Amino acid sequence: MGLLILSALDVDQATSKFTPDELVDLMAKVFTNLSGNTQEAKEGAEGVCIPHRGTILSSNHRVLFMPSRLSAIGTAIKIVSVPTPSAPADARERGLPASTMVIDDRTGEVTAVINARKLTALRNAASSLLASQLFVPPLCPSGSSPRVLVAIGAGAQIAAHLSLFLSSYPSITVCKIYNRSANARLLSLVKSLKAMHPSVQATGVALPNDTDGENLVGKQQFSDAIRSADIIVTATSSTVPLFPSSYVSPGTLLCLIGSYTPAMHEIDTDLVKRGGTIVVDYKAGALAEAGELIKADVGPSDVLELGELIQTSNPALSRWAPRIDMIERVRASGDVTIFKSVGVGIQDVAIAHAVVESARKHCLGTVVDDYDSV
């Protein structure tokens, strides 16, 4: 088998074949494997292996190398270049270049190179949707389905989240997007959502500036939007809370995607405390990297992994099912529900293998037959 190369367009075509349910099921498999393994298994050849990412600083980027293995699926390494503040404006505007290499377990050969620029956002959105469906099922009793979704940010992460959430929750009729500025990216996102989901009232607005004492109307509208939200999704690099806890109504579900260093905070400590038991994708990663949790002194006993909330081992289950006892434990611990994601390498393994399978099925990409000829 030759080397399969998938461009950004190839990846778009391959991922367009996935349904939201298929993506959620894939992440359910990832997280049940993650949470079901002992620490010893996580570090061994069998089970899960998530080495700490390696970093090289180039002249304009911080280059991250993230190898991972999930024995139930395979092995891969993702390479991401994060522009530094000194990077040229055009490099910063283009976002984060990323590629994933898929490795054949039997031969050790690289079997695919995938443009992963959008895949990180897609796998994160699928994880958030899995968490959301546990606490806010799409088919709720009359009157309890989510109607208002508020998103903060306008990058690939938010675009992927909104695409999946609006497709999965037909009850959502209002989608309010706030961004640092009303830039071309925000306007393009709103236009795209209106075209794809004409029944949804989608709006895009710049976040009110705290230093602008005259923008009282904008601040009031923002606080009203947060209070009205059934679901809030944040994906920013903010180092200060985006809104105070007092804005958030009881019963709200929050999916926090942005922070991945101790210095980054999308919500304040009061709101973290209101969440009670926090749901995270990966306990070790979240407690070491999520600035909101670190500042609030959240410890191992204060969090549950997403994989601990679902079961897939019952042969009678056609998909996965929520563990009702664990769901109720989280609900009873606070008056809001918080899912905090910092990302896990084995998500990249899973989504990369799924994309390769889809590409081969639909004859996408370029194959280099003699790449590793002997």
UniProtKB/TrEMBL annotation:
InterPro entries: NAD(P)-bd_dom_sf, ODC_Mu_crystall, ODC_N. SUPFAM superfamilies: NAD(P)-binding Rossmann-fold domains. Transmembrane segments: none annotated. GO terms for cellular component: cytoplasm. It comes from the Eukaryota. Pfam families: OCD_Mu_crystall. Belongs to the ornithine cyclodeaminase/mu-crystallin family. PANTHER family: KETIMINE REDUCTASE MU-CRYSTALLIN. This is NAD(P)-binding protein.
